[in-house]
Amino acid sequence: MKKQSLVCASILAMAAATSASAADLAARPAFPNTPTPSPAVIALYDWSGFYAGVNGGWGSSHNSWDFLGSIPEGSHDATGGTVGGQIGYRWQFGNTVLGLEGLGNWADLSGSNVSIANPGTTNHTNIDGFGLLTGQIGYSAGNVLLYAKAGAAVVGSTYRITNSAGFLGDADTTRWGGTAGAGLEISLTPNWSAGIEYDHVFMPASDVSFATGLGNDRIRQDFDLVTARLNYKFGWPLASK
């Protein structure tokens, strides 16, 4: 009887010791020297900073001429290519991006129509170049930037009148107006980005004087531009999240 009691007591003691050891092992990490993983760091593009680049594309200008300001001579579209460059600076606040940009382009947008008031003459328009000074507001989705822009425009144009015998007279003008547009830009590398942009340029009606005997015309002008852009951003810091 005593032997049976001793055996039972031994079995109970061993069971208690085994349970305690198992609990102690469960409480200990399997690899006590393994470091705790750090939270993942996600790099986000920051559009802040200076940038400069080139652009090129296509434009179409609508031009209406009125002889002496009141006699319609008709309208024509002046179309062609354009190429130039831009420089600017952007600030990013969260997903909002603000910016300022100056753009200067050479252009060759030309067109003509036979005058309604004087069918013996033809009116020609050529846009030689333009500049845009604009402010931007945009939304950043990582390395994709969607933005709108608006500001001032300056346009250099040449107007010419010809007849069947050839040249009659011309006038060169530099006129100020306004512009509004929108664009999409995508970062390709930490420094390079590419995009596409649309701009509408509108000019106030202006009196243009030609050679003696040709009088003057009031010319109304506006045009649309679609350009591809390539920018280099200086610095291009990354933000962490």
UniProtKB/TrEMBL annotation:
Domain Outer membrane protein beta-barrel per the UniProt entry, residue ranges: 12-234
Short name of any one Pfam family annotated for the protein: OMP_b-brl
First-listed, main subcellular location of the protein, grouped into a coarse class: membrane
Full protein name: Outer membrane beta-barrel protein
Domain of life, per lineage: Bacteria
Listed SUPFAM superfamilies: OMPA-like (SSF56925)
UniProt family annotation: Belongs to the Omp25/RopB family.
Signal sequence, renumbered to the chain: 1-22
UniProt keyword list: Cell outer membrane, Membrane, Signal
Cellular compartments annotated: Cell outer membrane
Cellular component annotations (GO), alphabetically ordered: cell outer membrane
